[in-house]
Structure formats: C-alpha cells, structure tokens
Amino acid sequence: MSMELHDGLLQIFNVDHGQCALLTMPGLGGFHRVLIDCGHSVDLNGSPWYPGAHLASMGVPSIDMLICTNYDEDHVSGYPDLMRRGISVGCILGNPTVSAEAIVHLKTEDGMGVGIEAVASTLAARRRIGWAQTPPLIPGVSLTWSWNPYPFFDDENNLSLVATLDIRGFRFMFPGDMERRGWNHLLATCPQFRQTVAGVKVLIASHHGRTNGICEDIFDVYGCWPKLVVISDDYKQYNTQETTNYYASKAQ
Question: How far apart are CA 18 and CA 109, in angstroms?
C-alpha cells in the first residue's frame, strides 16, 4: 500500500451497475485482503477497470477471500481478470445452499456471463478436490453471513448472501441484491439476523438502491439506524432507483 495502515481500509469502488469493495487489514508480516464482490467498470473512452488490475498495481499476488453476495454477472465480472493475472483467491464465500450446478441452472434463463461461468467452474473444481470454502480468521474482523435456502427461493436476488463485517467494532452490511421477500424471510426465521441488523453502521443499499431492495421493517421494526447508506451504482440507471430520499430519512 502507498500509505501506512494502522486500523485498516475499506474501499468501495465505482463499478458501473455492479458491486466491488476491498477490505485491507494489517497483520503480522503483511496485509490481509478481502474482496466483497468483483465487478468491473468501463470508462467513457471504453477503457476497463478491474479489481485485479488494482491489486496487481500494488504488487498483490493473492487475496484471503472473495465474498460473492450474489451469483450474478455484475457482482463477479472481474473474476476472470483475477485469474488471468494469476492472483490467487483463498476462500470463495457465497450462499452455501447454491451449488455450482444450481448457479448454471439459475443463469440458463437470462444467459451465463463469463464471470459467473468462471466462478461456477472454480467452485465445481474446488469441490471435486475437497477444498472447503472456510472463511479465514482476520485480526480485527468478525464476519457473519446469512442466506435464504435454495430451492425454497429460486431467484438469484433472494438467494443473495448478506455479508456483515464488524471491523474494529464498526459494522458494515453488504446484502447483495436481496429483495423485500427475501429480507422478510430472513427476519422471520433467524433471530440472530434481527440482532445483527440493529447494529449496522454502514448499509450498502440492497440491489443498487432499487425499490425492490427496500425492507422497511429493518428500520421501522428492528432498529437499523445506520450512520451512512451507500448506493453502489455510478449513476441512476433505473426509475426504480428513486430511493435516495427514503434512505436519507433512515440514515444518521
């Protein structure tokens, strides 16, 4: 890193209508790094930006974990570039009830992008050799994750992995593209998830801030009152993203 890190750094990147964040934490003898999703962007001149290029520019040969909050192309489109650059990936954490074959099945309706195809292939290969996707222990970070089961839900959005990172006691929630129905099922079936929601300090707005990602109950019933809500989109791309006033009313 070009700066001294004492407590860690969480970067949320502009990756068009997608998602990508990088957590960097100091450790003994080096840094721990976690990618939360792996989307990419293209600028006005048509030049792409990939998280792999960012990591390579810092001389980073590996990351401890890739969290896939949603097995959809806009969340993993930068994954093939990671592979091409030879950046090794430790744990790949996603919804544990969604197998590689289920990913392929879910994507047959609207098409399989190269990123999600590569992730599914990697997960299948790791399963064949018995590589358990166990999250690493990172000093200063407590990770919890919640999900709805497949095939009880059979759409990618409501099968999102809600990843919550307590970093030095400050709680960030990445809910992928979870929609209202999925939120409500988690809240109804998982008492621990209700407690987790109440302590969130930074909420990444579900489904890029679209209306169907809003669950009023997390705020009005279960006490979520974040200091900040982040909408992971470079600009409003859908009319269903007219939600900034709503989120502003729920944030400190």
Answer: 20
